[in-house]
Amino acid sequence: MDLAVAFFYKKSNRYGFNALAGALESRREQELHELPLFFFRTEEELLSGVKELSEKHSKVVVALSFFTTQVWDVEPLVASLRATASNLFLVAGGPHPTGMPKKTLSMGFDAVCYGEGEETFPELLLALLREKELLSVKGLWLSTPNGPVFTGRRRPVELGRYLPVSFKYRKFGPIEISRGCPYVCYYCQTPFMFGARQRHRPLEQVVEVISRMREFGLKDFRFITPNAFSYGSEDGKSVNLEALREFLAETKRAAGPGGRIFLGSFPSEVRPEHVTEETVSLVKEFASNDNLVIGAQSGSDRVLKLCHRGHTIEDVVRAVKVTVKAGLKANVDFIFGLPGETEEDVLETVKVMRELVKLGARVHAHTFMPLPQTPFAGKPAGKVHRKMEKLIRELLPSGVIFGNWREQELLAQKIERYLRR
To answer: Model-level pTM greater than 0.85?
Structure first.
């Protein structure tokens, strides 16, 4: 079959497509290497590009990845794509399609890549190219005349088998070094999408990828991981200082003269109990970030237990002290309106936030949003308590609080209504 592939390469979803393009590049099948891939950054580019491709190819696979927060943009886009051409095969992946595969199919998709896509997506393309039965491809939810059908779960992906970026298509970004999370926080999709066993990308591959990216002129290297200081840890909960030191030393060496590495800052974070003088000193010695993103989420130990966070407020305070003492900025994440939060919990959080700010921290504020597939999926949308709003107004002028908590509060209400339907 004459096939072309179009990725909706939006800024907010591009990391996943970097990995998919890298996975295709890592496969041995010549058919996949000859397959034309196209990356469209806007809806206008996607619609016009897909229309042009549909006139040149017998079938066009259009791949979209999206979060639950993007559902209201994706639904009309799918309708527009369907009106563009009749020879399209629409496939969805990412957090929302994995969390609500049947609902995603009802939006007009032909298939959903459930969970990890490095193996499922290439095998889907091979089945289409060879005109084989899609039911033979594991990891798919398919739209059939008899309703949605699931082809079965896959085993967790071995990260080292696939490139995290694409050199062929020059699609670069942060390098994913770990996947999965053993903490299973009840508001987070990560452990339910990728599993509770943390897997690490082999250091040799990370070093090789950095070295090759250097050849393309890149000098700054960031990493994707649910917990930056857990790299090399067997259980994902302990800190393996020797493995962490080796990782930082080797990636710094691979970055070369003028190259910089960033660990524990955006787009990743660190667990507060893992912020110690030893781990922070490694960051100071090898990395170039001037801050650490520390996940606190609440100032109430009771709420932290309800969320299954696995750390205490004392851990958070100590982490900020260690970070600031080392000369790094501490950006501390908080989520307002978590399920089960009472006014007393809010007051405790206000108190902790004041203390952290006095210590030199900045607060990154979020509002709780119920997400599919999580234990908190059926909980009410988060609301910013009036006493928290008072603190926010007080802190805003000094710039020690930032975030999109207000927009998230409104969006959380839409998501709650959507999930209840």
So the answer is: yes
